Amino acid sequence: MQKDRIRWNEKYKNKETTSVKPSKIIEQFYRLAPKGRTLDIAAGTGKNSLFLAEKGFSVDAVDISDVALKTFSRCHSRVHAICADLDTFEIPRERYSLIVNTRFLNRRLFPYIREGLVTGGILIFESYLEGTGEDYCRPSCRDYLLRDNELLHAFLSMKILFYQETKIHDQKDFCHMASLVAVKI
Ligand SMILES: C[S@@+](CC[C@H](N)C(=O)[O-])C[C@H]1O[C@@H](n2cnc3c(N)ncnc32)[C@H](O)[C@@H]1O
After folding, report:
1. Span from the CA of 149 to the centroid of ligand 1 (angstroms)
2. How far is the centre of ligand 1, averaged over its atoms, from the C-alpha of 63 (Å)?
3. Largest CA distance in the chain
């Protein structure tokens, strides 16, 4: 949606520094995936895409913000930036050995994520929970927040290797996150 692109481009334009460290959960679990193609859903400024490309994966990095994608897409030959709206984006079937989704939620994608993996492929998914009213660093709109156990239930047709719901400290703030690692069987 054009409105989302403008909003996210504005955010990224004004951002002074971008994190280059990958998400902890990616560092912890990426080795479980067979080498091959990776899909980074809502890649942002590419911290996970670049890390995975360095580790030998070919990465399709999808995001609506061309400003964010421009910051990193030329940094690695194994990263393929795709500027697209995930409200309508079609994940190719049985294409990926690894799909990662961090700090982003689009429930429409749940079945397509599973279908997008090859058998034996790994999903690493971590995003914000509703948490308590005191959570600061999370989206304000409830549509973008997971309910308790929702992520676990969404992927029960896969073999769950790891699942947790926990409070995460982010600089001075905190939020609650659900984290899942699963393999397609
Ligand atoms: C909180 S950031 C997360 C970025 C990265 N995954 C991370 O963990 O740092 C959310 C990302 O979702 C992207 N986004 C928001 N709505 C989108 C949409 N409809 N289609 C594609 N990307 C979208 C934004 O541009 C932004 O980069």
Report:
1. 22
2. 6
3. 43
**Ligand 1 site residues, Cβ closer than 6 angstroms:** 4, 8, 23, 42-44, 47, 63-65, 68, 85-87, 102-104
The CATH fold assigned to 2-183 is Rossmann fold (3.40.50)
Rg (CA), the chain: 15
- Region 68-87: mean pLDDT is 94
Q: What is the arithmetic mean of pLDDT over 62-85?
A: 94
Q: Which of 64, 82, 83, 146 to mutate to test the pocket of ligand 1 (most atoms within 8 A of CB)?
A: 64
Tell me: pLDDT of 17 over 60: no
Domain boundaries, the chain: 2-183
Residue 47 tokens read as: 């911290």
| Sign of the C-alpha dihedral computed for residues 140, 142, 148 and 152 taken in this order | negative
Output the CA angle 111-117-123, nearest 5 degrees. Answer: 80
Per-residue pLDDT, 114: 98
Atom number, ligand 1, closest to the C-alpha of residue 100: 6
Q: State pLDDT tens for residues 87-146.
A: 999 999 999 999 999 999 999 999 999 999 999 999 999 999 997 767 666 677 888 999
Residue nearest to atom 10 of ligand 1 (CA): 104
